[in-house]
Design a protein that fits this description.
This protein has about 250 residues and is α+β, with helices and mostly antiparallel strands. The chain contains five helices and eight strands, in the order αββαββαβαββαβ. It has a domain of about 120 residues: 2-Layer Sandwich (Alpha-Beta Plaits), CATH 3.30.70.2970.
Amino acid sequence: MEQETCCTNKPHKFIFKIVAVVLLALVLIVALVRDRIVNNPNWQVSVTGQGKVAYTPDVAKITFGVQVDKAVSAEIALNTLNTNIAKVMKALTDLGIEQKNISTQNYSLYPQYDYIEGVSKPSGYSASEQVTVKIEKFAEKDNLIGRAIAEVTKAGVNNINGISFEAADIESLKNEARLKAVDDAKIKAKTMSKSTGVHLGKVIGWWENYYPVDPYMSGKGGAMMNADVASASVPSGQYEVLVEINLNYKVK
């Protein structure tokens, strides 16, 4: 009789365990569903603000080059190039431009070929060097940009690649624009919340876009510039730093 009672209780225990597991699973499912409802990641509002800061560039960068073509040997090409570059460097330092503001960007030497009746024949060697000159506070230096272009052209430069303008304190300008963008986004969020009746919580995320201003004045496509043209005043104008900030708000 005792054995029969024992065997009879086993199915009941098994059923009880199954019911317990099912109930536990239901509790977990309900908890997960509730969490998704209460903390729905889609219940967010994104607002974008813009911040602009105007500035007048105070740094100019001039990029130019010296190129020697069809020298009879690589040695002659390099010697001619180095001689011309030395003259250019002297012209720049004579204008008061410090050596630390003069940097070489590219240096090359390669053989040249002419194609005659479909046949490639050596025609000499080409050597070139590109140099960038930085002129700080150029507005205070009596058209130093134009004078520098004129003097390096006389000294042997035969490629003026371009002039770019920038601000020495660009990072502080970006920070100022960033703060303005955040304030703009907050004002928009407050206006939207009031007009729609949607209550916004804390900021749960953000991203930023920075639009760098790279004003650029191109040269003559690599052609030699006339000294009279080069000595003319080069305007820089006024530019803006633009930062966009997107704030993600949690909806209450």
